[in-house]
Amino acid sequence: MERKTVKQLKKAAKDLGLRRYLRLRKHELIAAMRGQPKGFHFSTSLFRSLQYQS
């Protein structure tokens, strides 16, 4: 899914019957289609900071 464009993801969201997808960003579209809670985004910088804490 990460390789798809936002336009392709929005079409897929529409086809899946998701609502309120037009204003979502790419990572939000992917999370919505995977059924993850809204706002869930594991950013690269957060991931890096967690790696160095252990």
Topology of this protein?
Blueprint (H helix, E strand, L loop, with lengths): L5 H11 L9 H9 L9 H10 L1
Helix pairs in contact: 1-2
Provide a descriptive summary of the structure in words.
This is Rho termination factor-like N-terminal domain-containing protein. One of its GO terms (biological process) is DNA-templated transcription termination. It holds the Pfam family Rho_N. The chain has 54 residues and is an all-alpha fold. The chain has one domain. 56% of the residues lie in helices and 0% in strands. It contains three helices and no strands. The protein is globular, with a radius of gyration of 13 Å.
- What's the helix-strand series? HHH
What is Rg? 13 Å
Instruction: Characterize the main sheet.
Output: none
Number of domains: 1
Q: Approximately what portion of the residues adopt beta-strand conformation?
A: under 5%
Helix content: 55-70%
Question: Could you state the oligomeric state of the chains shown?
Answer: single chain
Mean pLDDT: 76
Low-confidence stretches: 42-51
What global shape is seen? globular
* β-strand number: 0
Total of DSSP H or I helical runs spanning 4+ residues? 3
The span between the termini is: 30 Å
Decide which structural class fits the backbone.
mainly alpha
Protein name: Rho termination factor-like N-terminal domain-containing protein
GO biological process, one term: DNA-templated transcription termination
InterPro entries: Rho-like_N, Rho_N_sf
Pfam families: Rho_N (PF07498)
